[in-house]
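Sample 1 of the test manifest.
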Amino acid sequence: MSTAKITGIAALDGGQRLAVKYFAVAIVLFGAQILFGLLAGFQYLSPDFLYGVVDFSVNRMVHINAMIVWMLFGFIGSIYWLIEDESGTEVVGLWLGNLAFWLFTIAVVIVVVVYLVIQTGPGQIESIWFINEGREYIEAPRWADVGIVVCLLIFFYNVAATFMKGRWSGIAGVLVLDLVAVAGMYLTGMFYSPNLSMDQFWWWWVIHLWVEATWEVLVGCIMAWGLIKTLGARRQIVTTWLYIEVALMLGSGILGLGHHYFWIGTPEYWLTVGGFFSALEPVPLVAMVVHAVYDSGVHRFKSPNHPALAWLIAHAFGNFFGAGVWGFMHTLPQVNIYTHGTQWSASHGHFAFFGAYATMNIAVFYIAAQRWRGNVNFGGGLVDNGWKWKWALGLLNGGVVGMTMALLVSGYDQVFIERALEGATWSGFFKAQQNVWYLQGMWWRQIFGYMTLAGFFLLVWDLMTIGVRETRPAVFPTEVAEHAA
Amino acid sequence: MGALGHEGLNIVGPMGPEGLDAFLRAVIAGALVVVFGAVYAACFAFGRLFSSLILMRVAYGCFGLLMVTVYVLATSLQLGGVWNVLMVLMLVAYFVAPRMIWRLTAATHE
């Protein structure tokens, strides 16, 4: 066991060293997301718990904001991880990237501390700028919004300038174009209108188009690079499919935004537009099954990084079920009229975000860990038989799926009592949440939340220790292909 | 019941037991549409990959179940007019997409 292998920062290029910083913060925020989620979940069961200390509204806000930011840190880190390898040159403006990292991290800490210290008070222009913008999911105060856009622009500059200095690729082209949208789309959540319908209209551009469209493309780029690295997939094929998948996704996804416009006061044609594109949104996911079967059958890939590959597979399944099945279940307006704003949406949100994004970040963490440990074998025959990563995978996925099912039970109870029997009245809102089925669903959600927490601890432990005692070097599929040639 | 139909997109009044049954049928059918779509696509792809007639028959069987679930979805929600056209379009897309993707996959992997 050599020291160089354990603290393998010397083996990393400049971009990867910066990426590791992003990954470290991402993992801390992932823990914060779970912790505040558990606190908020427990407040459903015991509403007096921490009342006046950390209110439910604050717990829920930090839970969701931490999720958004840890995903973002993970994505930015992932791009910095791959950029020198992909462009064949050093990162341009690395110092600027480091500066942006520290600005972003310090801003996140300040925002969360302010959330916790100032939980109530009047809503004024000053509070919008310095305390809380007050818009669900994007509560960060305006100064932090500006900071996020500046950091994203710096990130865009670093990525675009690096590819311009080095070599372009299909992945690079899609990535750079997408980063323009990543920075630009966030701006739509930064202006305010006293007309609630207009305000919600633009707010959904951030929630649906920024998070679900531009992030999906970003994840597509990371996935493409990940498949080349973990499976040795041919670049030409991966790039072609990246184009096809982006076209399919944007074709059905952009106007799929319409399913968020059903009940916010927009014109009635959004019912048809939203319903139409929502019905077609799962078709690309289903079609991709064919491609996966073709590749697994024809190429019979082998990977020297089983945890990363397992998380990529979890990504494919999680995306399909969380976004596809759980999404279409309630996106037609005739169904959504009863389900929107209930725990049904939370059920879909938990499964889809974990399946589509968290899994991908964790896969890249394992790719990074392998390099950090000196490119040792993470495939079969690990010293401890890989029990930690297998249990972490099982507990995290089992925990999230369990929470999803439990929230679905509670959501159905709300549809049944609040919407159907009581006709969406104020008293129905409370009756539903006092019903035994609703509460049982919430208890099970809490139990599966603890299971997720256990998986998180195991994941962190595994990332810190996997491959430390491993001496066999990894044989990467790309190397096999090159040697064979 | 009426509250579930395309003409009655409102929740001002209670739905009633009949409507609740229809609602439950609709959401389960909605989920199964995507699941049967995926199983059809997988069986179709494996059938082509291994030139297996049995798998191709299973695939078409799954597509038959997909058609049934779309019918259940449409009738449970009392869909009419443009919404029924959408259901037909959806079926066509689920049927055609795997075949097109297979061709595209084979062509791009040559």
